[in-house]
Write a structure and sequence with these properties.
alpha/beta
């Protein structure tokens, strides 16, 4: 590198460092206020209970803890079921909801969303020895095949409209209260497929010792966001923090930690 190029590189570094510090300083300061965040702990590696330590861990916990640090608020975590979460946040029982929640217009009518923090795709999760079908088309033709799903979720609607016949009462869809229950039903043979976002699916496959696998291509793309009660004053600061996490590589580092490096059960 020439002296002139070295000088320009040094000059650029001198300019960028203050700007980065200024961007961090520009984040809103919530002055230590308590913010209650609710989750389900059912979507590894986004959020789940570590089978070894019993602690609540995952991508979303790390991201939310970093957001809390940068915005200077005290985060308190609580748990509830998926089917109660959106209404509970809408009713201001909690300040923020996080559980890999897909951003869509129907939910926007009840709650406000943050900007997307992750883009994901849905896949078919099946038992490791499944050979009767290999994708959505062959599963639809397999008339005895059953899908496990939680009502009102993106996988449920994908099962109805992208895999089966558009009938939300189709008896081939078996409903469960939690995502974990659908996976357990799959493992014991009560259903044959669970539709899952790729992040949760990879987590379950990694922990299954070959008993589960993902098949077929992606069935749909979805963006995940945190949810807030309508008009919450937390939306703007959280969006600013998400933008900062994207800009400085924190989100990329979390993706590597939880989707590449972390091994369930090890």
């Amino acid at each position: 590198m020439t002296k002139s190029k070295l000088y320009l590189a040094a000059l650029f570094a001198c300019l960028v460092a203050p700007m980065a510090a200024l961007a961090a300083d520009a984040l809103p300061d919530l002055q230590g206020r308590k913010v209650v965040v609710v989750t389900e702990n059912a979507y590894p590696p986004l959020q789940f209970v570590d089978p070894k330590s019993g602690k609540q861990i995952g991508w979303e916990y790390d991201a939310m803890n970093e957001i809390a640090k940068r915005l200077n608020f005290a985060v308190e975590y609580q748990n509830t079921s998926w089917d109660a979460m959106i209404q509970a946040v809408s009713d201001k029982q909690y300040d923020i909801g996080m559980t890999g929640i897909t951003i869509n217009d129907e939910r926007k009518a009840k709650v406000d969303f943050s900007d997307p923090y992750m883009r994901n795709e849905q896949y078919m999760l099946v038992r490791g020895d499944e050979t009767r079908f290999t994708d959505a088309k062959s599963f639809a033709a397999f008339k005895d095949g059953l899908i496990g799903a939680q009502p009102g979720t993106s996988p449920f609607y994908t099962a109805v409209y992208s895999v089966l016949d558009g009938n939300e009462q189709n008896p081939r869809i078996k409903l469960f209260e939690t995502f974990g229950a659908t996976v357990q039903a799959l493992k014991v043979g009560d259903v044959d497929v669970v539709l899952t976002d790729s992040t949760a699916g990879k987590g379950y496959v990694a922990a299954s010792d070959g008993k589960l696998k993902l098949i077929g291509g992606p069935l749909g793309t979805e963006d995940f966001g945190f949810i807030f009660a309508k008009g919450s004053d937390l939306v703007v600061p959280v969006n600013a923090a998400i933008a900062a996490l994207k800009a400085d590589g924190t989100i990329e580092a979390l993706n590597k930690k939880w989707f590449l490096d972390y091994k369930m059960g090890e």
